[in-house]
UniProtKB/TrEMBL annotation:
Residues 22-34 have a biased composition (Basic residues). GO terms for molecular function: rRNA (uridine-C5-)-methyltransferase activity. Residues 1-36 are annotated as: Disordered. Belongs to the class I-like SAM-binding methyltransferase superfamily. RNA M5U methyltransferase family. The active site is at C440 (nucleophile), C440. It comes from Syntrophotalea carbinolica (strain DSM 2380 / NBRC 103641 / GraBd1) (Pelobacter carbinolicus). CDD domains: AdoMet_MTases. The keyword Membrane does not apply. GO terms for biological process: rRNA base methylation. This is RNA methyltransferase, TrmA family. Coiled coil: none annotated.
Length: 489
C-alpha cells in the first residue's frame, strides 16, 4: 500500500476514440518568462503521473521536479502562466521520510529520473498505485486482480540502450537529454542508470568531438552536423553498437569519429551513421550507413539469440524484459498443435519464445528493419514455425481473419498510445482462448482493457513490472480470457 504522503494526482479516463494516428494537441498559451528568477516557498501535496511534485502558490498549481509529497521546498519560478507555475527545485526546507540520497550529481540539471530521490520501496508503491488508479478510472475494471509489482534486482546500471542529444552549451560539449519544453540539452555525465559500457562510450565520443571540433547541430538555427548519439549494449556478449545521427551525409569526419571509438573501445563492434535532415524532433531518418564493423548487434534473452539493427526497437532493461517474456510464455501455455499471434512484435523476442511451444506463430510489425531482424532471428534459433509480416497492424489483421485457423493466444505489445479500436475488434473476432497485453502506459492499458471487456474478454490478472527504476514509468502485463471463462483456464 502506498504511504499516505505519496499520493498520485487523479487523472480522467482516456475516453477519446482510439485513433489510427496520433491526435494533435492544441498548443498551450505561451507562458510568461520571468525577467529574473523569483524565489517562492511551496509545500508539495502529491505527485503527478510523471512523478513531478505538485503544490499550490497563491491559487496556482506549481510543478517542481525532484520534490516529494509532504516536503516544503524553495523554488525558482521558471515560467508562470495564468493557472500554473513551473518551478525549479532550489533548496529543501522540510524533508519527506521517503527521500534518500541521490546517486546522480546531474539529477537537478537532467530531470530525466523523476523518482531518483525516492527510496526504492516507495517507488514500487507509487507505481503499484499508479496501475491501480488507472484501472479504477473505469468502473468495470475496479477489483481487477493486480499482483505485487516485480521489482528490479538492479535498480541502477540497467539501461542497455541510450538515445542522447549532442550540443554545445557555453562553449562546452554536452551529451544528454533535452530539457522539458526546450531546445537546451542537459548534460548527463556518467549516468547511474546506464550500463557502464554506455558511459564509457559517451566519454570517448565527447573527447573525440572536441579533438576534431565537429560541428554540432543546433535545432534553433537548423545548422550543424552531429545531432544524436545512439548506443545499444548486449549484456549477453558485452558488445555494443554506436549510431551517429547526422543532419546530412558526411564521410570524412564521421568515419574518423567511428574508427576512433572502435579503436578506443574494442567492445564496440558496430558503428553506423544515420542521416536525418528533417527539422522535427524525430530522432532517426530513413538512411543508415555502416561505417565500421558488423551491420547488427547480437544479444540473447533467455535461450533465444537475437539480432538487432540500428533502427530496431528493443527493451532497454535486459533482465526485466527476460522476466516479461517468460511470463508471457507461461500464461500462453501453448501446445505443439496450437497457433499464436504476436502483434507489434518488434524483432520477435516474444514470438520466438512462444514458438518453442506452439505449432505456429505469426508476428506483425510496422518497422521493416525489425521484421528483417525477426526473420533472421527465427532462422538463427532454428524456429521454422515463425512467420513475420511487415505493415499496418489493423490492415494485416483483416487479411488474417480470413486466412487464420483457430487461434489459441494473441499477444498485444503496442506503443504508449495503445491499440487502435480496429485492432481490438479484429483480435476478438479471431476468438483466441487468451489475450495477453503488454503495456508501457497504465492509462491506455486501462482504456483498452475496458474496450476488450465490451468485446467479450475480461481481465483475469495483471502483473506490473518495474522496467524503468528511478523513473515514473511502469510496465504491465495483463491476461484476458473470454467472459464466462474461468480465470485459471
Amino acid at each position: 500500500m502506498v504511504p499516505a504522503n505519496l499520493t498520485i494526482k487523479p487523472k480522467q479516463p482516456e475516453n477519446n476514440p482510439m485513433p489510427k494516428q496520433k491526435q494533435s494537441r492544441s498548443k498551450p498559451a505561451r507562458a510568461r518568462r520571468k525577467p529574473s528568477a523569483e524565489l517562492i516557498e511551496v509545500t508539495i501535496d502529491q505527485l503527478n503521473d510523471d512523478g513531478i511534485g505538485i503544490g499550490r502558490y497563491q491559487g496556482k498549481e506549481v510543478l517542481v521536479a525532484g520534490s516529494l509529497p509532504g516536503e516544503k521546498v524553495c523554488v525558482a519560478v521558471e515560467h508562470e502562466g495564468q493557472r500554473r507555475i513551473i518551478g525549479q527545485f532550489r533548496r529543501l526546507l522540510t524533508k519527506s521520510p521517503a527521500r534518500k540520497p541521490s546517486p546522480c550529481p546531474s539529477l537537478r540539471d537532467c530531470q530525466g529520473c523523476s523518482l531518483m530521490s525516492m527510496g526504492y520501496a516507495d517507488q514500487l508503491d507509487f507505481k503499484q498505485t499508479k496501475v491501480r488508479e488507472a484501472l479504477n478510472a473505469y468502473p468495470q475494471l475496479k477489483g481487477t486482480d493486480i499482483s505485487p509489482i516485480l521489482a528490479a534486482e538492479e535498480p541502477l546500471g540497467y539501461r542497455t540502450s541510450a538515445k542522447l542529444a549532442v550540443a554545445r552549451r557555453n562553449g562546452r560539449i554536452v551529451i544528454g537529454l533535452y530539457r522539458r519544453g526546450s531546445h537546451e540539452v542537459a548534460d548527463i555525465g556518467a549516468c547511474p542508470l546506464h550500463h557502464p559500457l554506455v558511459n564509457r562510450i559517451v566519454e570517448v565520443v565527447r573527447e573525440e568531438i572536441a579533438r576534431q571540433d565537429i560541428y554540432l547541430y543546433n535545432p534553433v538555427t537548423r545548422r550543424g552536423l552531429l545531432r544524436y548519439l545512439l548506443i545499444k549494449v548486449s549484456p549477453a556478449t558485452g558488445k555494443a553498437m554506436v549510431t551517429f545521427v547526422t543532419a546530412q551525409r558526411e564521410y570524412k569526419r564521421i568515419t574518423a569519429l567511428a574508427k576512433w571509438v572502435a579503436r578506443k573501445i574494442p567492445e564496440v563492434v558496430s558503428v553506423q551513421q544515420n542521416v536525418n535532415a528533417s527539422s522535427g524532433n524525430v530522432i532517426m531518418g530513413r538512411e543508415t550507413l555502416r561505417m565500421v564493423g558488423q551491420p547488427d548487434l547480437f544479444d540473447q534473452v533467455g535461450n533465444i539469440r537475437l539480432r538487432i539493427s540500428p533502427t530496431s526497437f528493443f527493451q532497454v532493461n535486459h533482465a526485466q524484459a527476460a522476466r516479461i517474456y517468460a511470463l508471457v510464455r507461461r500464461w500462453a501455455a501453448l501446445e505443439s498443435h496450437e497457433f499464436a499471434l504476436d502483434l507489434y512484435c518488434g524483432i520477435g523476442g516474444i514470438a520466438l519464445h512462444l514458438a518453442q511451444d506452439a505449432g505456429r506463430v505469426i508476428g506483425v510489425e510496422m518497422v521493416e528493419d525489425a521484421v528483417r531482424n525477426a526473420q533472421q532471428n527465427a532462422a538463427m534459433n532454428n524456429l521454422a514455425n515463425c512467420r513475420f509480416l511487415a505493415g499496418d497492424t489493423a490492415e494485416l489483421l483483416q487479411d488474417l481473419i480470413v486466412d487464420l485457423p483457430s487461434l489459441a493466444t494473441a499477444v498485444l505489445n503496442p506503443p504508449r498510445s495503445g491499440c487502435d479500436v480496429e485492432v481490438l475488434q479484429a483480435v476478438t473476432q479471431l476468438q483466441p482462448r487468451t489475450i495477453i497485453y503488454v503495456s508501457c502506459n497504465p492509462d491506455t492499458l486501462a482504456r483498452d482493457l475496458a474496450e476488450l471487456q465490451k468485446l467479450g474478454y475480461r481481465t483475469a490478472e495483471i502483473q506490473p513490472v518495474d522496467m524503468f527504476p528511478q523513473t515514473a514509468h511502469v510496465e504491465s502485463v495483463a491476461r484476458l480470457v473470454k467472459t464466462g471463462q474461468q480465470a485459471n483456464q
